[in-house]
Write a structure and sequence with these properties.
The chain has helices at 17-20, 38-48, 58-65, 115-127; strands spanning 4-10, 29-35, 53-54, 106-109, 136-139, 162-164. By secondary structure, it is α/β, with parallel strands linked by helices. The strands form 2 sheets. Strands 2-1-3 form a 3-stranded parallel β-sheet. The chain has a 3-stranded parallel β-sheet with strand order 4-5-6, with no helix packed on it. Helix 1 (17-20) links the parallel strand 1 (4-10) and strand 2. The protein starts with a strand and ends with a strand.
């Protein structure tokens, strides 16, 4: 009986290492595991479907699976175990003391469609009363700026704006 060959791309998580390193072998499957960074996994899978299985952020998955011609399914496997509301960082000199103080301020994120940023914007908008249009949104990656041109997401026709920075 021949083995099913599958390619899989994820970031290096400790809870995947035994299978990735071959200490645990899935029955009937030969895995070709690629250890890549988050954004590379997401971009290569969403743009070209380069892998049979790929880690994908919740925000990227949602935009992909809700398309009329969707060709992916989700498996209930938690890859990243981060608490998404732990990453608001405020410049001490900004005068920001509460969430409402974000109104009219500049708020940055590595990517507009980054799951953590989606969760945080939803929390600000729905739970804290800081409407998306009331904040000046910016996106800039640590190495390159993400732009709508490289995105698999449609640019909003109305609502908040987001400026890309180099």
């Amino acid at each position: 009986m021949s083995l099913l060959n599958l390619s899989i791309a994820t970031t290096d998580y400790d809870h995947f290492r035994d299978i990735r390193m071959g200490f645990v072998k899935p029955e009937g499957i030969d895995l070709n595991w690629l250890n890549l960074g988050h954004h590379e996994c997401f971009a290569r899978f969403t743009a070209n479907r380069e892998f049979d299985i790929s880690e994908l952020s919740f925000a990227k998955f949602t935009t992909q699976v809700t398309r009329p011609d969707s060709d992916i399914i989700g498996l209930p496997i938690v890859c990243s175990r981060l608490f998404r509301f732990s990453s608001f960082y405020v410049n001490k000199k900004s005068g920001i003391k509460s969430v409402k103080d974000l109104i009219g301020k500049k708020v940055g994120s590595p990517e507009w469609a980054h799951s953590a940023a989606v969760y945080m914007r939803g929390w600000l908008h729905n739970d804290m009363g800081v409407k998306l249009q009331d904040v000046k949104w910016y996106q800039a990656g640590s190495l390159t700026s993400w732009t709508w041109k490289t995105s698999t997401l449609p640019k909003p026709k109305s609502g908040p704006s987001c400026t890309s920075l180099p």
